[in-house]
Structure formats: C-alpha cells, structure tokens
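Supplementary Note 3. Input sequence used for the single-chain structure prediction.
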Amino acid sequence: MFGKVALALLAVTAGFLILTKVFIYPSCYSFDSHDDANHAFPYNYVARQAITDGEIPTINYFNNFGAPILGDALTYPFAIQATTYYFFDGPTGMTINRFIIGILTILAAFFFMRIYLSTFPSLVCAMLTLFNPVSFWYPVHQYQMATPMFLLGICLINRLIKTKLARDFILLSILFCIMVLSVSINLIIFMIPFFIVFAFCRNNFRFDKIFIAPIVALVATLSFSFPQTFDFIRNYLTSARVDEGVYSGILTSLRELFLGIAIPPGEWLPYNYGAQLQAITYISIPVILLVISGALLIKKKRAWKQISLLFCGIIPTFIALLLYVNTDLRFFIPLVKNVDILRVLWFSMPFCFVYVGYFIAYARFGKIPSIISIPVIILSIASLLLLKLIPESSDLNPLHSLAIILIILGSIFLFFQQAKKTGFLLILLSLLLVPIPIIVRILGLNIGSCGGTQYSTDLAAAKFTPYGLTAFMEKGNRIATEIHTHKGHDLRVAQDGILGSDARGIAIDKKFGKYLENKKLVFVDQVPYGYYFARPWQTNELTKLGIRYLVIWGEHDPELDSKGWIKLSTEQNHSLFENPDRPTPIYLLDKNGENRIFLNDYKFSGNHIDVNLPNISSQSTLVITILNKYGYNATIDGKKRPIINLESGLISLNVNRGDHHVDIRHLPYPWYLVASGIIFALALIFVFSLKLTRAKS
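The predicted structure, written as discrete structure tokens, is reproduced below.
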C-alpha cells in the first residue's frame, strides 16, 4: 500500500512541479516558443484540416513554399499527444500534455525499475529518470513521449519474455505503433538497439521465437507507419541537413566536463536557451560515484541483469561521451554527424540509474562493504580538492559542494553499526539534491518571469508577432520576414490563412535553398540549415515567388521606400510593407515570359490547390509558387496535365484557351498502398500471435 500511495504522490507532484510557472504568472502556459509554436501548433492545425477532410496530411502549403508534414519529423499529426489539439488550442493542449506526460514518465520509470529493484529504490530512481538532464531538456511535441514510450516498451518486452503470451505480443505491437507515430524518428532509431539487446539478455541469451518477437513487432510497426517513415527518408535525403555536421558541442574538453559534473554549466557559462549540449554536465559526481559503486554490488545478481545493465547502460553511455568529446571522430561517421549523440543517454541513463538503485538498496540495510565505501570517500574528497584549483569554482554555490560532502559523510557513517541509518539518509539526501539545479535551470525558476525556457512562455508567443499586423494582410497571400528564423514569425501565420516563405525545419529542400542563395535573396542564419529573406530587396524576384508582404525590423526602410513598396502598418518596432506589384502566389505568364496576370480565385485546402482560371486568350503558363515535390498530380477540367519543371522548382502548367478549373493534389501514397502496409502489419501480428499461442499450448 505504501508503494502505491508514494508512487501516486510522486507522480502527481512531478506533474504539478513542471507547471510551477503556469500557476505563478498570468497568461503563462507550458509550451516552447520555438519547436512548439513554430512547428507543432501551425503544422498540426494544417494537418487537422486535411484529416477532417478524410485525407492523410502530406503537405503544408503555408510554410517555405510547401513543406512536408509526414516527413518533417516535427509535426507527427497522428501522435497520441496530438489528440489534445482537437479539443484545445495549442498552448492549452501542450500544457495539459506536459502535466500528463510528467505523471506518465514517473509511472513508466517506476515499472521499469521494478524489473531490477524493490519498491523504495525504484521510487528514488524513477525521480532521477524524470529529471534525466538530457531528456528533461526536450519537452517539445516530437520528443516528449520518448522516455515513457521507451520504458514501457522495455517493460512489455520483459513481460512478453516471462509469459510468452500472444496477448502481450499484441500489446507490445500496439505500443510500438503508437510510439512510432508519436516520437521523432531519430529517437526511434536510437531505441531499437536497446530493445534488441535487452530482449536478448532477458531471454537468457537465446536466439529463439521469443527473442524474435520484439523484432517482428518493430517490422510490423514500420509497415503500419511506412508513409510517415518513408516520407521522412525521402525528404531527408534531399534536404540540406544530410550533409551537415550539427551539434558540435559547447562543452568538449575534459576539463570542462569535469567542472560540469560538479557545477551545472548554468552557474559558470552564459545561459543558453536550449542548452541541450550542456545537459550532459548535469550528471553529477554523486550519481557517477553511485553508478560505479552499484555496478560493483550486482555480482550476485542474475547474469541477464548484469549483462543487460552493462550493454544498455554503461557501454552506450561511454561510447556517446567518447564521441561527444571527440568531435573529429563523430563528424567522420556518416549519419552520426547529423544527430545529437547525447540523445543516446536518453535511453542509457535509466539503466545506469538502476545501479544507483542497487547502492540505495544495499545502503538502506547497511550492507555496503568497505572495499566500496573507501574508494567512494577517496574519490569524493579528491573531487572537492580538485575543484578548488579551478578558477570557475571560486564562487561555487554551497549546494554543489554539499552534495559531495554528504556522500563523503554518508559513506563514513556506513562503517559504524549505530550510524548506518544516518549514513544511508545522508546519501539519499545527496541524491535528492542532485535534481535541484536541474529543475531550477531547466524550468527557469530563477528567471523571475514566465518565459526563458522550453517549459513555459507567454500565450502571445504562440502567434505571429506582432499579431496586429495580420489584420493588414489578405488571406491566401504570401509573406516573408527579415527576421531570424528561430523566432518563427512567418511560420505561425498558417492559422491565419497566410503563406510563409522563410525556412526552418529538418527537411528543408537543399536545391531550392541554393537557388535562392544564388539569387542573393536569402540569408542563411542557422545550422541545421535555415534562412530568411534579406536585402538587397529584388522586387522582381520576390514577385516571381509570389511574395506580397515583407515584415522588417524598424519603423522606416529607405530602400523599400525607394523601390515603391507601401508601408501598411508599424507595431512593436516591426513594419509591414506591401509589394508594389501586388503579386499573389498563383499567376499566369504569357508565352514570352514577360507579362504576369495575378489570380485571386484560388484555394489552398488540405493536400489540394484549386484554381479557377479567367478567360484565357492564348496559351500561357500557370505558375503556382509551391515547390514541385514528389507526389503532385494536376488536372485541368478533370483531365490530367503534366507539371512543368521551372528553374526555380516551382509548380507550373501549360494552360490553353477554354481551360477553366485547375486541381493540384499532393498524393505521394495512394490509399491502396497505405492500406497494404496496414494489412501486412496486421497479418504479421496475427500470424506471429498464432504461432505463440500454438507454442504455448
């Protein structure tokens, strides 16, 4: 009974703790002003429109001249956490998600720890798992379900191997299907080796039907979700990101790493908003010492437990840290150079925390041998002395020294029979102090305002800023902004029916980006690849792209004034200008390519573009300022027409006199192909379940 009550209290407390600033500050919600506000909210809004029309959402016409939805690895419209957006606006839905997922993570971590540990150490380690620094940095839409889904997957694999029941195989397959629709594909790729290694160890190192079961479930899952997975691969291979070496690391020297395990980098480095590359240093000295000690205490445990913890915990953690420190080696390895290698620790650290749990279990009953306590004391004292030699530690917060001192005192007290309980409590207190700087920095409790972290921001940050300018824009027209892409100004206008132009995302089309760079129309402002439109302003080129509005910093722009652009409004030091040509995203071009007729009778809806043509006197070219990606089909008055490739890569068609209605559809995956994938997945699950049932009987 104690375990259930304690677990419930811990889970609910964690959920409310994550929302601390939501309760303190007015108009404060728990969402990220970058990935959530720029991608998850507007993309899922567009996706829901397609879904309600009975379509699989594949394209977002309102971002960067047509950006993929299924293949962008940010939207995940069929994710289980996207359900809340059908009932609430983005910020409210995300706030609810954060609360529920905080609770779910504690529960999943507890059940995972119970595979190895008793109730009390499982509770402590579940708390450490929630505040695992590397994963705790990432509460955004595409990552927030990674930890609970992974841990539940391990739990179901453990259950399946114990029971060998078809029912548990079906449950595992369902979980994997939900997981692959809800979690970023790069994290899924990281998870798979952990699932396979754990299954092999848990099955007592046997290659048999039960070991293969999780692999069969994964294959069925990939078949079930193939449009999303395949679309990501297709778009990723044509993106600029495939050639980039990203996440080059803020802390890469051994000196800085050592300093970081004693003093969180926020105490001695300029604060970084995302700070994901600093997160590793929140793995503190007390945790490291107890992981090593716990690893020495499990010699009497079953072989599968020892090997699974070694190969799922310590070894992948060591490899990830080695590649993190050795940037040259990491950037030499294909695909590895494109990802944040520290994300391996999302899945290896829970296994490492099991070692901490073993130490707690032994210390609780005073069974820590001196051969382990003495090295812990020596290493802790050496760490304290070494810190005094590092200049950054001169104004060290006493809390960080206290955590190490408590480990020293606790280990000393464990030598004495009457003081063993006190020693255990001191060590436990040291562990409970570990998450405090993590919670304070990552939740931004020390900032004194709502914003500043990925866990909370003001409601206004979910919309185009300044929102008042949208009243001066006509729906269905295109905007570009001379503002850094991470601010997401023109990414957020989809919900207002306005098309954006700047690029920010994972699957940014490399060829089109280079075309714009060669024309000197954009400025590349970030890695991973992203850009915004920039001066010198070339009115004719912007007109070709259907860009009608520009948003710039400041109240005045002599260059735009001299070129005839009309200032429509100024708000919060942002000014909105209108192109003197008043272009629209769709226009007719005469056969000489000189004169343009901008159309106004068109509609972007779901995966469709509908255009009603005016009376055409001679053959012309219809230009639709959307990138011609794989999967587009065009019909005019119900008859199929070929799409012409322009130098820019935009969609264009030859239209003739008498043509009236143009219908463009993005349909890369016909319904029968999607149905085939689902049917194959269900058949595979059914056949394997039947084999398990027969084997059981």
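The chain has 24 helices and 21 strands. Residues 671-696 form the longest helix (26 residues).
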